[in-house]
Amino acid sequence: MKSYNIALIPGDGIGPDVTRAAWRAVEKVALSIGFAVTSTEFPWSCAYYKKTGAMMPADGIEQLRAFDAILLGAVGWPAQVPDSVSLHGLLLPIRKAFVQYANIRPHRLLPGVQGPLKTDAFDILCIRENTEGEYSGAGGRVHQGTPDEVAIETSIFTRTGVERILRFGFEQARKRRGKLASVTKSNAQKHTMVFWDEITTKLAADYPDIEVSTYHIDAMAARMVMAPNSLDVVVASNLFGDILTDLGAAIQGGLGFAASANINPDRSQPSMFEPVHGSAPDIAHLGIANPMAAIWSAAMMLEHLGEPEAADRLMTALSDVTRTGLGTVPGKDTTESIATAVLNALG
Ligand code: NAD
Ligand code: IPM
Ligand code: MN
Fold first, then answer.
1. Which value, in Å, is the radius of gyration of the alpha carbons in the chain?
2. Tens digit of pLDDT for each residue in 97-111?
3. Domain segments of the chain: what residues?
4. 116-251 shares the fold of 1-101+254-347
């Protein structure tokens, strides 16, 4: 029997609730199809930081390396640990260390979900660069606390990094409707973003079957709202992709639906699957977080692991539930009732 060994990092706030729901769904679908899943839970979180002074142990990355995949809930509890410390201590190092350069974020309306736009045909795949760009972490502060203080945050765009994420986007477009939108801000940012545009033009020659468009990030934000049906695959840098995917989440009915996969495309290292949303401190402990984004992310994990039927069954179960209206109005239903309905829909 095929068997997959998964690292669970539930994290903070609503992270543990939605991860538990997703894992129950994974266990059930594995049983019904006939493959084995085992998990090891890592308590790495802001609470762990308060206890140990670190978000994960010094050898945390090495501990994760042996797993087939990582399923993560959410990281961050700003009341206790600055976000810049918690995210740079856990989530971002995992994405970088395992070269999970392709962050895939599907945005589409599940049946019965009424997004804020007057459309029922919203289906965009965002591909976000995930290891460099504006979130490279390069920079520093000098003369701290004085009037002469300087803060520098340097964007890093490498030819390797830009080429590989664009190629990944072109390949995804080939599997979908054949359209690629590349997002930059090359009118204002004349070094990095012009570089990105040049590489887009160069690679387009290798993909004559793909219709390529380029947009500035500001115009793309408006287009996603005004003409979402003109878009198929959207490729963007780390920061721009981050912002556009919260917009995509809103259009698909809320952050409780938006799933995400941090992919190491050459499969030399584990990939990580997590909802787009964070720890939601405003609703944590209320038991009303929507677990669908986490369950959808788990479906992406199963697809990546080579279990497409299991992934399909999870997605069908989610649709069966949203079609009844359950989970479609933010804050109305409990995490537990939605999770149980998904399990029941799995049969
Ligand atoms: P957030 O995504 O946690 O919350 C934004 C809004 O969406 C809140 O009103 C929240 O209640 C709502 N929301 C989010 N997920 C939901 C769900 N599943 N069901 C229903 N409503 C949901 O963003 P934030 O408030 O900016 O960040 C909170 C913390 O999470 C911060 O520490 C931030 O750095 C961190 N964060 C972590 C990740 C991650 O681990 N991948 C992602 C984003 C933010
Ligand atoms: C996301 C999150 C993270 C990111 C933060 C928490 C660092 O917002 O996954 O979208 O920007 O990558
Ligand atoms: Mn984000």
1. 20
2. 999 999 999 999 999
3. 1-101+254-347, 116-251
4. yes
Mapping DSSP to helix (H, G, I), strand (E, B) and coil, where does residue 262 land? strand
Q: Report residue 120's pLDDT band, with 50, 70 and 90 as the boundaries.
A: confident
Atom of ligand 1 nearest to the CA of 331: 20
Question: Residue 143's pLDDT band (boundaries 50, 70, 90)?
Answer: very high
Alpha-carbon distance of 135 to 153, in angstroms, equals: 9
55 lines ligand 1 (CB under 6 A): no
Report phi then psi at 99, rounded to 5.
Answer: 45, 50
For residue 91, what are the CA distances in angstroms to 135, 147, 175, 249?
12, 33, 29, 20
**Tens-place pLDDT, residues 48-92:** 999 999 999 999 999 999 999 999 999 999 999 999 999 999 999
pLDDT at residue 305 in the model: 98
* CB of 274 shorter than 6 A to ligand 2: no
* Residue to mutate (ligand 1; options 277, 283, 285; most atoms within 8 A of CB): 277
Ligand 2 pocket, residue 17 CB under 6 Å? no
Q: What's the CATH fold of domain 1-101+254-347?
A: Isopropylmalate Dehydrogenase (3.40.718)
Cβ distance 193 to 182 under 8 Å? no
- Split at pLDDT 50, 70, 90, the class of 147 is very high
Active site residues: 135, 185, 218, 242, 246
Among protein residues, the one with the nearest Cα to ligand 2's atom 8 is 242
Q: 76 by DSSP, 3-state: which?
A: coil
Q: Does domain 116-251 have CATH number 1.20.272.10?
A: no
- Residue 55's pLDDT is 98
pTM: 0.98
Atom of ligand 1 nearest to the CA of 15: 40
Q: Measured from the CB, is residue 277 less than 6 Å from ligand 1?
A: yes
Q: Spell out which residues have Cβ within 5 A of ligand 3, the ion.
A: 242
pLDDT, tens only, 192-216: 999 999 999 999 999 999 999 999 9
Query: Are 274 and 72 within 8 A, CB to CB?
Result: yes
